[in-house]
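User: I'm curious whether this sequence folds into something compact or stays loose and floppy. Could you predict its structure so I can see for myself?
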Amino acid sequence: MDPRLTKELIAADWLPRYTGMAVEEFGDFILLTNFKSYVEAFAQRFDCEVRGRDRAMQAASNDKGLSIVNFGIGTANAATIMDLLVAREPRGVLFLGKCGGLKKSTEIGHFILPIAAIRGEGTSNDYFPPEVPALPSFKLHKFVSEKIVERDLEYRTGVVYTANRRLWEHDGDFLDRLHRLTAIAIDMETATIFIVGHHNQIARGALLLVSDVPTTPEGVKTEESDLKVTQEWADIHLDLGISAMTDIAVEGEAIKHFTF
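Assistant: Here's the prediction. I'll summarize afterward.
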């Protein structure tokens, strides 16, 4: 094999190409998100530069070893960023995303720490057989849960269903299947991040914000309702991620699972 075509070398070339930020500028810990506004808020908080405004992804790094990347929406983009991060070999990655609540106990504004994700998206099948569960790194989630408890905020744990399909709220058969699967929420990235992180031996987690309750007609997300959720909860969501990942860096506790 031509040594120029190793995965690590390709990723080292493409990570700056996608984000506008050099590999060495990325911190040991990474926040992933779907929202440019989170990157902008992060940069304002730490007085750092946003890179990649003209690229597919935007990124920023503070001076504490923490970076944030807006990778876009969907499982293909989630897999891409988790592959590209092998160039940096981060110690931990936390996804800050939104999800649709599927249970009566999951109200808008609640946070969800998934204990696992159902691989309904298909993208993860390119990395492991369907029998391999999509799991987070337990110790990373422990830090996140501590930060939520410290703030006396509502959060849930459970299994998230990850889909490749965005427009499904009208499909009765799909809704029936979601009910049978007993998932607590639905999103479009979590399972992929967990599986590709496992494949690349990157410790990973997800803190999801319930932004809608799509199993009821009045709960389907609209631009207006999503804006309200963002205004009320985005700052707290981002702050929880920053606090958790910063504490991991300060305490220096290993969060990577054993390799079998």
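Summary: The longest helix spans residues 223-251. Strands lie at 29-33, 58-61, 66-70, 92-101, 111-120, 155-163, 185-187, 204-212.
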